[in-house]
Design a protein that fits this description.
This protein has 460 residues and is an alpha/beta fold. The protein has 20 helices and ten strands. Helix content is 55%, strand content 10%.
Length: 460
Amino acid sequence: MARPGRKSRCGCAPRKTGWALLEADVHVKVVKKFCDDVTAKALGAKVIETLHPEQVMVKIVYDELVQIMGPVDPRIPFITPGPTIILMAGLQGSGKTTTCGKLAKYIVAKGKRPLLVAADLKRPAAIDQLEVIGDQVGVPVYTERGHQNPVKVCRNSLIHARKTDRDVVILDTAGRLAIDEDLMNEIAQVEQATQPTQVYLVIDAMTGQDAVNTAARFNERLELDGLILTKFDSDTRGGAALSAKLVAGKPIKFIGVGEKLEAIEEFHADRIASRILGMGDVVSLVEKAQQQYDAEEAARLEKKMSKGLDLEDFLAQMRKMKSMGSMKQIMKMVPGMAGQMEGLDVDDGELVRYEAIIQSMTAKERKRPEIIEASRRRRIAQGSGTDPKDVSALIKNFAQVRDMMKVMSGMSMMGRMKSISQYMQAAAGGIIPRLKGGSTVKRRQESQKDKRKRRKKHRR
């Protein structure tokens, strides 16, 4: 598929992609089919004159990943009159109870009135855990501590939901091993007794090849409507869980992207494919930002950016950023940054230190950080439990960010994303939390230094 006069450098791309998928715990049969399909589509593919063959290859791989992970429909079909019944199933330790709470919070945001049902009567303190989660998300929890029959508890919860005007019921069943026939029979009986509107299988994205067998066994006993992948914010790519989706033949509905109860996202195959290929996920990043800023607030920020932010503004933006998720998650969504994150660890504690430093300043110092001289730095450092050098570094780096914000104030969204990407790649040790193991800039400088040493040694 190379252009005349140009040697294609992507002939082994399907093979390399196959190894990458195997390392991501994708089932070997899925990998083989994927590579065969990509090869078939790549052979004879026409390369547009303005593109390189490797760029066309990336597009083919991307399209195939989207096709494998689709079709996608993250919507929950709420019924009228209710209640809509959602049965949650999964293995022990998959994060099912926490996912019930996340789903309840998600449903509340849709204007519904959910009820959580503690039907996990096997695991010690499972009822207590769900009650704590329910209290945190503001959703009532139905419990019957004296019962040992989850079928009766679930059936009674539906009566309670109708009496209390709850239009969605989320059944948190006991985590179970697929090989445990008694427990598998039990959840099948719960399904038969409650006739759920939706049945979701919760799978740990870090699970190995057993996820394929798990999905197959659950799909044999239950009429699954979709999958929910938990712990998708980890370094694993969740390949085994994606394989489970193909084996079960059911769509992935949601992904858990953190420990917080709001850390659940609708699954979008195109966005996940972009993340896998290191292309970032601008859409999800923009959506996270929109959740934190309304139109008026965004306009006020735009105006302040053009004039120049002060440390009071910067403190407010830091707090907004913390509520969007970890810095590692946010940086991975920026185009071009996913590859830069390989082997690096982001210290989110730096934001906490910056916040402590700014809070130790007077209102005047926050408005005019240029007045902070040696004696003020010592006072601020003492009040925040940091070093005066840290205060100096914050002020210096803040000045750089303020200048960058002024330049970006008149840019489009895509222009800003490009500038942010370039800045983060060039200054990943400044106002951005420190990268353990050294920043991109530091590694590049060390590389140039090594080259100079080799040249000098060669001349000798």
